[in-house]
Amino acid sequence: MGSEAVNQLAPLADLFGEALARLRPRSVAVLGVAGGNGLEHVDSTLTTRVVGVDVNPEYLSATKARFPDLRGLELHCADLERDTLNLEPVALVHAALLFEHAGTGRCLDSAVSLVAVGGHLSVVLQLPSNGHEAVTPTAYTSMTTLADDFALVDPHHLRRQLAQRGLRLTHQARRTLSTGKAFWSGYFERSD
Q: pLDDT by residue (tens digit) across 8-21?
């Protein structure tokens, strides 16, 4: 994600930072937290509970090692495609490039279940790009396995699915990356 050919780590961290700055949550959950990219943007004087969820226990260990002093950090190992999360809802759930890997079925239901009433779901999706493969080839051959489990998600389709679950779009933006690919980001508010 951070290689020059892919160059997605910094933009993803920035988008998370923007969501934190705009929405100013007291609690946040990052789905697919990996090694904690973006957690440096958490203002611990405002956000007192930070939940990280990932399928890979090694990523959770890396997050714990990178942010040992992050106030209210909780890390949970779960497969969002298969496992049911039983966690107290938060003011902001952030899911960046998650639904492309885990789908919009059970994973989306898990994300929505974590959003407290009056809270938000922040989503980052990769947009289709002419002349670019969905998963950029790199020198790391392990990255090629990601392509088998990666499917772009249409933002319009996601908006309809979230509206059916009681979340309304409050903000959206497009960010073009230095590689020519682009991200769509949207904030959805739960009002019920």
A: 999 999 999 999 99
Distance between CA atoms of 31 and 38, rounded to whole angstroms?
12
Query: Are the CB atoms for 167 and 121 separated by under 8 Å?
Result: yes
Question: Tokens for 54?
Answer: 């990932």
Residue 97's domain comprises 9-190
When computed from its CA atoms, the radius of gyration of the chain, rounded to whole angstroms, is 16
1 within a domain of the structure (yes/no): no
Residue 4 placed within a domain: no
Q: Which two tokens mark 80?
A: 């969002």
Q: What is the CATH number of the domain that holds 57?
A: 3.40.50.150
Taking the whole predicted model, whether its pTM rises above 0.70 is answered as yes
**Considering the domain boundaries, does residue 155 fall inside one?**
yes
Find the helix or strand (DSSP H, E) in which 155 lies: helix 155-164
pLDDT in tens, 79-89: 999 998 899 99
In a domain, 68, yes or no: yes
